[in-house]
Structures are given as structure tokens and as C-alpha cells.
Prior knowledge:
The structure is a single chain. The chain has 613 residues and is α+β, with helices and mostly antiparallel strands. The chain is 32% helix and 22% strand. The protein has 21 helices and 24 strands. The strands form six sheets. An eight-stranded mixed β-sheet has the order 7-10-11-24-23-22-19-12, sandwiched between helices. Strands 1-2-3-6-4 form a five-stranded mixed β-barrel. A four-stranded antiparallel β-sheet has the order 13-14-18-15.
Amino acid sequence: MHAYRSHTCGELTKAQTGERVKLSGWLHRRREHPNALFIDLRDHYGVTQVVVYPSASFYEEAKRATAESVLTIEGEVIAREADQVNPELTTGEIEVPATELKVESLAAKLPLPVFGEPEYPEDVRLRHRYLDLRRETLHANMVLRSDVITSLRRRMVAQGFTEYQTPILTASSPEGARDFLVPSRLHPGEFYALPQAPQQFKQLLMISGFDRYFQIAPCFRDEDARADRSPGEFYQLDIEMSFVEQDDVFNAIEPVMRGVFEEFADWHGKNRTMPDGPFPRIPYAEAMAKYGSDKPDLRNPLELADVTDFFKDDSKTGFGIFAKIIAGGGKVIAVPAPKSAAEKSRKFFDDMDKWAKKEMQAPGLGYARLKEADNGGVDSQDPVLKNFEPGHLAGLLEYLGLGAGDGIFFSAGKYTDAYKLAGAARDKVGEELGLIEQGIFRFCWIVDFPMYEWDEDNKKVDFSHNPFSMPQGGLEALEQADTVEKQLDLKAFQYDIVCNGIELSSGAIRNHRPDIMLKAFDLAGYGSEVVEEEFGGMLNAFRYGAPPHGGIAPGVDRIVMLLADATNIRDVTLFPMNQQARDLMMGAPSPVDEKQLRELNIRLAPQVKKEQG
Length: 613
């Protein structure tokens, strides 16, 4: 028999009754009874109940073994009594009375418990991540991550893609987030950069004639942490295709995304579904108007409404605050809250206003509760609608499709600010009213992003999304955009894929022609000399015959987050950093000694103390 195990702790069933087996694993839990000691022995695959009787020579040793000690046991499989069966476990119909037991490794007192998975401070969990990863939930999440990546690879190959590996040490990029820099020993004073994404390399692969590329690519960005973004490092399913239009990218990627999410929809009994049919395609302008966001959660049925026109004339509304905002070029956006006036107290509405001020840093969130009026109509005693002319109010409510018992929230301000608050309020109202559809993955494509936006600080037109995207209409459209208004109307072949309000990726059909690229940068105020200096390598490659190409790069971490139903990306990452971008377990980042610095020709500058307050 093998030195450590004949079977895993997750595979024994009644079929093995009577067999002599050997198991190894961790002491997950121990229960002492007068006539026996019950040990739940755990390994990567599951848990098996082991019984140690007082007559055994190793009984006292088993009693002294601490939680998470590593044991090897040997014994004969027996069936449990009917009333002792545990239907939650694969091994729940059997147990193994130990005839031999060896403590392979005695565990010291644990800094955090594994059994039961109680809440524990983040710093303790991260410092002892190897213990945290023994917990059932995290352990299962990491197995899910591996399975998802395997599934993605299999589906990409089935779609005719080939996996290639691009460099990790590369040149610093002048665009995007902050780079992680790596000093060169062989070239004093010069630095490599870790890639923020394989963007330029994958485009160069298309120019090199490789047609359909993919890679599970590590990406590195020196950014602050968020719940859905790790500081420093993340992975994406990086994709590029040659001789394609936007629809070709969608048609290639939708089956991959749908297949993966359908494959793991029932993971751990979660019983989720995917709607039939192609993913909806929503123009950017429509997404902002309806949802106040370019990453809308389509499980939420609420839609925003522009009610600016109803508040222009304060002689009809008696509410001059909004009229003044509108006169200054602002907007008033309504967020419907069905049945909220009937089902919620005034505290709900006041709390929403407080949330807007505290969490969104907004001046406030107006609201109105609708009730039946004495004359049989509908009115409101809240300030926003209290003094509306009856006919004017009736028109507003008809436009919104609301009536007695409903509520309305109002976001007013500059266009961007008004929609940002309204979009966030839509999400919060949907959650508070229990309107978010459960047990479903709702995908969509956001398309037709504006090529340019107005830079208020510098009073100029600048790129809004990705400067290397192909403008819709090509060179002709750029040449005809001879006013700021026309330039701001230009659309690009840019797209995002979104699921349940989470942006999984941005992508684009690339601008593969130097003449179009130079013109696009010219409209944004960047001369040809700037483009040649900053992006000359890519531009020169385009001059030697570049195919039309496009791609996308869905985030692996976010895909797994959605499938695991996790709320923090840390819970689907093996060894994450903390919010301050520190690896508490390995002690990184850390100082290096003078010898290493001398080899790299680096002298550290005195640190500037940050001002307090």
C-alpha cells in the first residue's frame, strides 16, 4: 500500500465497504464521545469521518493532536448506521475505524480557525493566507478559477484561436495607468516595464500574420485597490483577430462567454440561468440616458427619465431651485421608485438623500412621494412637486408612468454629474426595493462610444476612450469634422462587454492605417511629431501592411468573481495584496541591500515626508 494514501478523503462510498484503506489529510474537526473519538479528516478532495476507539494504542496521541495537524490513518471502511448518514458529504455513508494512526506534522496554535470559517481581520487572514486557503469557501473558489481558465482555453481553441505568450519585460507605456518599472543591470539608468496589457504585442502579432490570437495574460498596473480590482496584478483573456469587423468579434466571443457562464451556472448548487438569444447591444448614449452608466445592471428594471423640460418654468412648478440649475445648462433626471411611497416610510427617502450627500458627494437627492389627492387625482406634499400646477403634474406622472403609492427621486446638476448620481441612485433604489432579478446572468454590449470628449480643464477636444480605435466613417468622417460639435459627434468602433453591472472588458476595432491615426491625433491637438515620438514603433509597423484587426480582453478575475458570487476580488485570488498594495505574507515590497542597488546603478533619494492632516 502507498506510504500515505490509497484513496483521497473525498472518494470513499459504500462501494468500498470492507476494503482496507489508507488516508492522509488535515485534522479538520474532532468530537470526543465516551466510547470513541471522531475525527473529520480533510484533504483537497473532501472529508472522511475517522473513528478512534479508546482501546487503540494511539488513542491518547490522537486526542492530543491539534486542529490542522496532518495525520495518516489506516483502517477498514464500514457503513454508517442509517441515522448517522450525512447526505451533505460524498463520504457521508461510510466511516473508517482507525487501526493505525501517525501524526505526520503537529500544528501549532492557529492564528485563525479553519473549521467554521468565522470572520477574521483581513491582516490576519492575508498574513496567514495558506491557512485562509484551507477554508472550504476560498479553497473552492480557487478550484473554480482553475476550472474556468481551463474552460476558457478549451473554448478559445474550439473557436479557432491559438495561444501565444507575449513578453513580460517590455517598454514603459506613455498611455494608461502607472507602470511598474524594473531597473536594468546591463543598461545602467534604463528601465523595463511590466506590461499593463499585451496590447501592442497582440496587434503586432496580427501584423505578423498570426490571425487569431489568445492568451491568459498577466497584466500589471500600479493602481489603487478596489473591490473589483487587485492592486498591481490581474489576469485577462486577451484576444485579437485579423480581417474582422465589430460583429465578427461579438460572434466569436459571445459563445465563449455564454458557454463558460452556462457551464458553471449551477456551481455549488447556485442554480443560475442565462437568457436565450444574442447579448443586447446598447449604444453608449442610450445606456447613459436609460441607466446613467456605461456598465448597466440589466437585472434592474428601473429606467431613468430626463424631466428637464418639466422643470424649466418655475411658474408651473413653484420650484425655482431646479429652474435655476436648468438655466445654467444643467439637467434634471428622474429615478422612479415604484410602490416605495406605499411600502416605505419617510426614513427611506431621507436616507437616500443622506446617502447621496455622504457617498456620492452630491448636494442632495430630491424626492417626492405620490398619494391620492382629495379630488381623485395624484399629488405630493414633498417640496419638489408640492406646488406643481395639477395639469402640469399630471403630464409629468403620465410621462414617467407613475401614480399613487409610487415615489420619485430627482438628480439635478451638470449633465455628467446629474447622470452619475441618477445612475448610482437607480442601482441603490433597485437594491433597497428588492427589484434586482436573482439567479441570472444578464450580459450586454455597450457600443458606439464617442471618439472624443470635451476636456473642460484644457478647453479642448481629447480622446474619450481609446485613441487607437478606428473611427466610424474612417478618414472621411475625420476630415469632415471641422467644428468642435462635429468632432464630439464622432463615434468609434469601441465596445464594452458587461454582465450584471460589472464591466468585464473593453475592446475595439483597431485603427490600422497611419494616415487615419495621424488625423485622429491631430483633431485632439497632438501633432505628427508627438505621435511619431510616442508611438513610432507601432506606427512604423502599420506602414508595412497591417490587416484590419480588432480584439477584446475580458477580465478573468471578474469572470470568476461573478461565477463564485464573490464581493471582493481578493476572494478569487490565491495570494492577494492588501488595500495598501502590500503582501503581508511574503513581506513585499521590502528594502533591498546596498549591494543589489550598486549592481543596478541605483542610489535612493531621501524620502519626502507627507504632510499630516
